[in-house]
What we know:
- It is built from 3 helices and 2 strands.
- By secondary structure, it is mainly α.
- It has a two-stranded antiparallel ribbon.
- Strand 1 and strand 2 form a beta hairpin.
- Helix 2 packs across helix 3.
Amino acid sequence: MKKVDDQIGYDLNEADIDAVLRYMELNDPEHASPERAVRFLATWKKNLRERDINSPLESELDKFYKQFIEDDLKKHE
C-alpha cells in the first residue's frame, strides 16, 4: 500500500482503512468515506509520532476524531 510519510514509516493497509471506515460508519456515518478514512489514518499516525504515543486511550481517539472531522471539513468540503 502507500506509505503515509517516510518519517513515520507507516504503510497504509486495507485492514486499517476498513477498521477506520467501520468506526466512522458506526459513530459518524455522515462523514464516513474511504478517502476520509485514509486522511484520518495519516493524520492520526503523524500526531502519534509527534507525541510519541503508541497506545492512546479511547477517549483521546474520540476527541482527536472530532477535531479531525472539523479540520477535514474545512479543507475538503
